[in-house]
């Protein structure tokens, strides 16, 4: 692996300079292969790290295009894994990376399909944790990103549920809403729509 390549470079520094292209090819091939192996193990964070190392250090390598697609798919797979563990923040973050960093990848279609549902699931989880305001924001985002008609109805129902729970909330979210209402009534301003 890498140890042999590093040893050869360090042991034969002059010869390695004349064969730099071959050494770079060996490194890029190794990082791609390493990333694929980690991805197959389901260690998506480490797999992405290897693919992105290849892309940043060897952008002109023959393996760069494959690493680009593999990184994008690894982020999608990691999002699926995170969603299964109900870590919707991580899942949404991974899907956003695909949409913004790997926007030319074929994995974009899958990320676009998954992101609204991830936001919907995140919002539902936030309601159970009494984070009503953030849940309502996520529900709006999910709808903006595009949900099926059934999912949109589910989002609307959950939004109404969050409003009702927020009205009775004496926690942080309820205090924020009550303070805003008090301020608006004292200043005579119209509530935000």
| Average residue-wise pLDDT | 83
> Quick one: biggest sheet?
none
Number of helices: 10
Topology as a string of helices (H) and strands (E): HHHHHHHHHH
Strand content: under 5%
| Parts with pLDDT < 50 across at least 5 consecutive residues | none
Could you estimate the helical fraction of the residues in percent? over 70%
Radius of gyration from CA coordinates:
24 Å
C-alpha end-to-end distance: 60 Å
General description of the model:
The protein has 193 residues and is an all-alpha fold. It contains ten helices and no strands. Helix 3 packs parallel to helix 5 (64-84) and helix 8 runs antiparallel to helix 9 (149-167). The longest helix is centred in the first third of the chain and has 22 residues, at 20-41. The mean pLDDT is 83.
What would a concise description of this structure say?
With 193 residues, the chain is mainly alpha-helical. It is built from ten helices and no strands.
């Amino acid at each position: 692996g890498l140890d042999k390549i590093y040893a050869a470079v360090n042991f034969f520094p002059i010869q390695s300079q004349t064969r730099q292209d071959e050494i770079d090819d060996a490194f890029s091939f190794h990082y791609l292969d390493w990333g694929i192996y980690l991805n197959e193990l389901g260690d998506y964070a480490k797999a992405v790290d290897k693919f992105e190392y290849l892309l940043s250090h060897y952008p002109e390598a023959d393996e760069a295009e494959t690493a680009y697609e593999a990184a994008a798919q690894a982020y999608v797979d990691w999002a699926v894994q995170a969603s299964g563990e109900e870590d919707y923040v991580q899942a949404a973050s991974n899907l956003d990376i695909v949409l913004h960093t790997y926007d030319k990848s074929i994995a974009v279609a899958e990320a676009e399909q998954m992101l609204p549902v991830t936001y919907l699931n995140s919002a539902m989880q936030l309601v159970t944790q009494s984070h009503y305001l953030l849940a309502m924001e996520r529900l709006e985002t999910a709808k903006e990103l595009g949900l099926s008609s059934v999912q949109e109805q589910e989002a609307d129902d959950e939004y109404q549920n969050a409003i009702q729970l927020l009205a009775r909330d004496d926690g942080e979210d309820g205090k924020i809403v009550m303070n805003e209402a008090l301020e608006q009534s004292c200043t005579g301003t119209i509530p935000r729509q």
